[in-house]
């Protein structure tokens, strides 16, 4: 009978949709022999057996590096003698805030520009105590 | 109070912010995020307490700019490199009045100057410039900002700090007693 069929079809339609299964992404990379060798060495050093674990750890490390650089932080290694090296990785520099400062036009009066040019072309002033403290903070 | 300074995020709580100056409050609440993420005309950094990391206690906004060389008076350009003069604009800086007097303004300016130095080191800039309210010009002057002469006593006052001065300050190791 038509009404019963309608009702049934309504009930079916009201059922919650099945949640999509989490999709696992396959990752395949063409590595040069030297890179392949490097992966093997790193896996041995890190006592890893699976490529999945290797990729997962590499991803976590890169994600952390990107988030730090996005905040303007530098990634530094420090030796036991206190010697510091700053990581300069061109792709990371693309996300650094100082590289993404937008440009704006400032309105200047002629008098202000003259004053600006005079100060910028002259000898720099000595830093004040407050400035030294600010840079040390 | 342990303050962290970081870039403004969309989920930050800005509605309760009150520095006592409506244009600055309004900028943070209505324009800072849009200007940073959508139209890209300024990056806003916020000071937050680690125990309530979404509540903004203070902020500043930076942008890059430059002055075309041909707009600078001829008598000074010989002392400058043969290019436009790149600079950083400290467009805004404000502290919630409930947290004023705790050194937050100092911490925010400190971070702004460190970013300026990094910009100078990585992409080049010659100075940082700000538009200070007349009653705040003295505060900026303590950090070495110099007032630019203006044709009229207009508000606000443009102020200048040379990157070479900031760099020199960052390299000084001598002992300075902490301010009480």
What features would you describe in this structure?
The complex is a heterodimer of chains A (137) and B (180). By secondary structure, chain A is mostly helical. Chain A has a domain at 30-101. In chain A, 51% of the residues lie in helices and 4% in strands. Chain A has helices at 2-14, 33-45, 51-70, 90-93, 110-121, 129-136, and strands at 76-78, 84-86. A two-stranded antiparallel sheet of chain A has the order 1-2. Chain A is elongated. Chain A starts with a helix and ends with a helix. By secondary structure, chain B is an alpha+beta fold. Chain B contains 5 helices and 7 strands, in the order E-H-E-E-H-E-H-E-H-E-E-H. Chain B has a 7-stranded mixed β-sheet. In chain B, helix 3 (104-122) links the parallel strand 4 (85-95) and strand 5. The radius of gyration of chain B is 17 Å and the shape is globular. The chains are: A mainly alpha (137), B alpha+beta (180). At the A-B interface, helix 5 and helix 6 of A face strand 3, strand 4, helix 3, strand 7 and helix 5 of B.
Strand composition percent of chain B: 25-35%
Give the helix level of chain B as a range of percent. 25-40%
The gyration radius over C-alpha positions of chain A equals 29 Å
Shape of chain A: elongated
User: The biggest beta sheet of chain A, please?
Assistant: 2 strands, antiparallel
**Greatest interface and its participating residue counts:** A-B, 44 and 62 residues
The name CATH uses for the topology of chain B is Aminopeptidase
CA-to-CA gap between the ends of chain B? 17 Å
Assembly type: heterodimer
